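Translate sequence into structure tokens.
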Amino acid sequence: MTYTHQWLCQQIVEHSSIAIIFADREGKIRLWNAGAEAMFGFAAAEALGQSMDIIVPEKQRPRHWEGYYRVMETGVTKYGTDVLAVPALTKDGRRISIEFNVVLLRGDDGHVIGVAAMIQEVTARWERERATKARIAELEARLKQAGVSLEPTKVAAGKE
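Result follows.
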């Protein structure tokens, strides 16, 4: 069987467990794969044509749109290589933690026509890290209360 490049790309995007979303210059969702359906709970038919506000928490929307429109105008983003970690919303209103990278797509004239995001949910990891930090802070407070110094000790060179 011969596989075309287009067919392979379509299969990868459609069936990836990583959420892959494309939004146009106005922030309207134009692509929503199976991974996005599973992560956010919206079927593609529900998400396509909608504003990305369906997954952006209300409190984060002003900052999101400020950055989004700036990227649309300048064609520059650091999130093509750097990972952005933010909260997101699911269809049932749950807040989840996500991390994503983006790809800016350009028209024939070189102007940005929209942005594709590859998204992973990291809620469980974020909660574990938060619990670990809280536990460390609690233990440090107990040690400090017991009079134990948390400052690193200096060992004289050559002496053990």
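Note: The chain has five helices and five strands.
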